[in-house]
């Protein structure tokens, strides 16, 4: 007797599909409507892992579903194959990053094909191919022409022993390098940036369009990352200096409460102000700056940090009342936010208050937080004399309590603002400042420009040539790609400058303008550039005349469903959104958001923790697939729970999945061994289960309740088995129908088993292209009840209705009933009482 054997089924169908190519999406004559389903492409760091097994199983449910709903589905895949791991592996083992990368791709690709994800392999791409990165360079040049790509000096963490740039995470809490143990210093490097901050408002505002189709968690992470603050720029005169200093504040209403000014110690402004001071102050400042440069931005922003700072010996003048404000340098003010300077209002800002208390600076309250903004004094209680008890007005002095009064209230001690609410005071003070040319409404963002240059080898060379005179010359577009030179002979170890700088033959070129000696830019691009537009390259990956075809983009894009991990919730998605808007502005695209809908899957974990080599708790993809079969692993991923939840591999049962698949498969086998359909009408109970499934599954898939669909399929298989074993047997028409629906639906989760069942049921291969059957509405009434209809107390009709019928529907049926109409005749209906689904009582008069 033939038994379910996943290994032989896999071996049987894979070559058949290779031949059939059922997932090609590029036929220009294909008249089906289109859907673009995209899974985040993998980084080829080794073989596939269980995280890949999850994302590609879930994304494939969606792709396969839309195909069965009549769509031409584009479901492409490629490799995000530039980046640091390849380079590090190459350094460690003395091999070529290219070879390492492409070996891994070959391995992942073999695993992915076995995994039977319904990819259109004709669209495969690798970002490390010159055919791809040529267009990264083209993109760079488009941004450069628009002034959106530029170079500037920026501070980096520098290891003075290893001569390398360090990431923030590589600087230990004591300020030493994780690599060499040396004290880390800050060093200025010239780096390339993309001006994403120009798009801050649009990147923020357009998130509203995605409400409901992206997870709200991701929308909020994006909002916080962009971090728009609304307030004002206020200009302060500085004693002994021509130019004013501008500060950004979200609370211009508190201007009368400013008692000092603070500037970022590492700003140019601080350096300039201190120059006009005494040598002692200069020395104190120098020592302080050295200490500050060892701390990270995170540490500097921590609110519980002890406040430190140095008085610069200089004074600012408050524009509204002429008061002299001492200027301090303190590290809680950041050089690259706002203007790197703040007006300190200790009574109403906690960090300013902590600082004022540490250095004995005055605190002046200018907002009466006990004065209700609404004009009604809140009564807390009534005392024994019947008088209202008002809120406690004592001990709110921030200088005493150490707690800044950040709440709302009415302005006090503030000249023309006194008595106003916060929002009115803000309006008024901006008017006053604007009239005098000393300030204006202003916005600020947390978002920083995107640093895209890397001093590493394995990436896209930046297509710029530097003339001997310091000019920047873009490589002419017809000379792209600027090919990455061979790694052979290059020292890839990080040293703060790009290894490409040492490739003499490559780096020295004639200036395209006048032929004089010039040098190529030796930096490579952040790999987030590669992934910021890859969804467009899939449209025509082999076109060597353009990055993408706008007409194809019109047909397919934006992506209808994007699927991937929440670890990309911020940067990757933000960059892709930014580049899409840039391409829209340049006239290459007609839409401004790349991904219409987003599904984030959780992680695959073990015993409650993330899998990692160091913890030794890795479950290997290949082992699981060998043990349980592809279909069982895929089904387990879909059945585990809501996709966004983590899957603990110890809490799920691929063995159980495999048993279920065998059960489903045996149904088809039983049907196939019983070719004559004997009872034509079929078991009505089973037919109802089948059609209820057909009706419900689409909505469940579209709302990503894959686990519920699987549970319902299990119910269907059980019901089928019951009829086979006890009723009319496999010759029942309802059994065949249920088996066919099971095979059709299993295609979403377990394509090999589904295809094998489909064959057993007598069909040609290609269950993935079989259209989803329509449910018969007559079979959707699960059971029926009898509703009694009375007219003036006498039963006039009995209706057979669904137990879930609504009152309105039941009333309409009752009014339409022939018995009721005969009995009512010409009389007027004055009252109808409906108790769905059992009784309708009609009262008449006349
Ligand atoms: C006066 C003031 C009074 C402020 C008050 C707040 C409350 P967000 O929301 O983060 O934008 N600030 C401005 N530039 C800064 C910098 N470079 N480093 C550190 N802090 C800076 O906060 C804006 C507020 O943070 C600004 O408003 C300023 O303090 C401070 F009752 O100005 B505020």
TrEMBL record:
Domain Aminoacyl-tRNA synthetase class Ia: 13-211, 447-649
Domain Methionyl/Valyl/Leucyl/Isoleucyl-tRNA synthetase anticodon-binding: 687-807
CDD domains: Anticodon_Ia_Leu_BEm, LeuRS_core
Cited InterPro entries: aa-tRNA-synth_I_CS, aa-tRNA-synth_Ia, Leu-tRNA-ligase, Leu_tRNA-synth_edit, M/V/L/I-tRNA-synth_anticd-bd, Rossmann-like_a/b/a_fold, tRNAsynth_Ia_anticodon-bd, Val/Leu/Ile-tRNA-synth_edit
Signal peptide extent: none
Keywords, alphabetical: Aminoacyl-tRNA synthetase, ATP-binding, Cytoplasm, Ligase, Nucleotide-binding, Protein biosynthesis
GO BP annotations, alphabetical order: leucyl-tRNA aminoacylation
The UniProt record lists the keyword Nucleotide-binding: yes
Coiled-coil segments on the chain, per record: none
Cellular localization per UniProt: Cytoplasm
Enzyme class of the recorded protein, top EC level: ligase
List of residues binding ATP: 613
Catalytic reaction(s) noted: tRNA(Leu) + L-leucine + ATP = L-leucyl-tRNA(Leu) + AMP + diphosphate
Similarity section: Belongs to the class-I aminoacyl-tRNA synthetase family.
GO cellular component, one term: cytoplasm
Domain Leucyl-tRNA synthetase editing: residue ranges: 223-369
Protein name per Swiss-Prot or TrEMBL: Leucine--tRNA ligase
Gene Ontology molecular functions: aminoacyl-tRNA deacylase activity; ATP binding; leucine-tRNA ligase activity
Domain of life: Bacteria
Cross-referenced SUPFAM superfamilies: Anticodon-binding domain of a subclass of class I aminoacyl-tRNA synthetases (SSF47323), Nucleotidylyl transferase (SSF52374), ValRS/IleRS/LeuRS editing domain (SSF50677)
Entry EC no(s): 6.1.1.4
Locus of motif 'HIGH' region: 42-52
Motif ('KMSKS' region): 610-614
